[in-house]
Design brief:
Blueprint (H helix, E strand, L loop, with lengths): L1 H32 L1 H26 L6 H27 L3 H7 L2 H25 L1
Amino acid sequence: MRVLRAGALYFAIVFGVGFLLGPIRILWIVPRVGTRTAELIEAPIMLAVSVFVARWVVRWLTIPPTFSARLGMGLLALVLMLAAELSLVLWLRRMSVRDYFAERDPVAGTAYYVVLGAFAVMPQIVARRFD
């Protein structure tokens, strides 16, 4: 049960930060530097957020230092992140899933997928680094 709470909390905090950064990126950064650059600027910020939040949640909820517990936390957070993001995008932008993926910039999209992958395994990474 603790792993489920940890995954949900990890997702909620990181998604919340991304939700706050989204309008800043779209309204102020994209008009100045373009979509690709704005998304590439945001990627390392979200990666850093994932590191700090994963570390904090693992410590605060005392998630066992086992591979299955930490990876389970990250994978649950990833599933919640993808579901929330796709639901929000499809609802706000009135797009299909196919259109959403087809519209992604190849460079920024790749960076985004790498950050999502890191987000999923970050609880395990911080387990090795900070336990």
